[in-house]
Design brief:
Length: 188
């Protein structure tokens, strides 16, 4: 049986990318890291792991359709069948969604549908939420919408600062994402 090939999309620090790479017995091979922010620190992590990268600047394309066409081509050339978004903050358009229907997964640091979009941890902290968490879900054309696959709660402690809350949420992300990835691939 040939190995299932997958791509990770990330634009930031890449701690989730690293957690996926470090996972024991990952049921797929990460063959491509896609990044829409030239200079993002996730790129150094990819280099260290010898994962090929495709870095693009959306501003240099005439439209979302234009860069998504290239994206789809690159993913197909690499024989990618699953895509894991890990801090990729761009809304997917129909060109990308249709090409990989049911195969694009996202992780988000809140209990969706609460606190979608940017700075979900800060949003929950400022709102005084007693409980927040992490969601893994299929994506659609919305911002952090789409069918939910798994959620895990994280209690907001009296003593928490935004930084300590973020630390605990990210610890949950790093354990949850590889586990859900394995379950998904093995169940298909
Ligand atoms: C993660 O916490 C991820 O859940 C979040 O971005 C962070 C990326 O961190 N994604 C979203 O907010 C998606 N709306 P990382 O670069 O260290 O993995």
């Amino acid at each position: 049986m040939s190995t299932v090939k997958a791509a990770v999309f990330a634009s930031g620090t890449g701690s989730n990318f690293q957690a996926i790479m470090d996972a024991d017995q990952l049921s797929c091979e990460i063959v491509l890291l896609v990044c829409d922010k030239p200079g993002a620190s996730v790129l150094e992590k990819a280099k260290r792991q010898n994962v090929p990268t495709f870095v693009f600047d959306p501003k240099l394309y005439s439209s979302k359709e234009a860069y998504e066409q290239e994206l789809v081509q690159r993913l197909r050339n690499a024989n990618v069948s699953w895509i894991f978004l890990a801090g990729y903050m761009r809304i997917a358009g129909p060109t990308f969604l249709r090409a990989f229907e049911g195969k694009i997964i996202n992780i988000h640091p809140s209990l969706l549908p609460a606190f979608p979009g940017k700075d979900a941890i800060g949003q929950a902290f400022k709102a005084g939420a007693a409980v927040t968490g992490v969601t893994v879900h299929y994506i659609d054309e919305g911002i952090d919408t789409g069918p939910i696959i798994a959620q895990e709660t994280v209690e907001v402690l009296e003593t928490d600062t935004e930084a300590t809350l973020k630390e605990r949420i990210q610890q949950v992300e790093h354990e949850l994402y590889p586990r859900v990835i394995n379950q998904l691939i093995l169940s298909k």
